Inverse folding.
């Protein structure tokens, strides 16, 4: 992650985009306070398919029964 002030960002925008293309995160700051992030575009995340793990998890019938008391 690299931080640039607004003037630097305007002056070296192409350089900042090169950094982003390499996977880096660039922060733009105004008066030393971060105001924006430039991030690489992430390819579409595959959609989740409900029921993908069906039958792989077993919940015992006594799952929500009170626990035994233990002396500490």
């Amino acid at each position: 992650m690299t931080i640039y002030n607004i003037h630097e960002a305007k002056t070296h925008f192409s350089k900042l985009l090169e950094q982003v293309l390499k996977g880096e995160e660039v922060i733009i700051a105004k008066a030393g306070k971060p105001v924006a992030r430039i991030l690489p575009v992430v390819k579409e995340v595959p959609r989740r398919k409900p029921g993908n793990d069906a039958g792989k998890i077993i919940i015992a019938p006594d799952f929500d029964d009170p626990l035994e008391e233990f002396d500490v």
In short: Strands lie at 2-5, 26-30, 33-38. Helices lie at 6-11, 13-21. The mean pLDDT is 90. Residues 13-21 form the longest helix (9 residues).
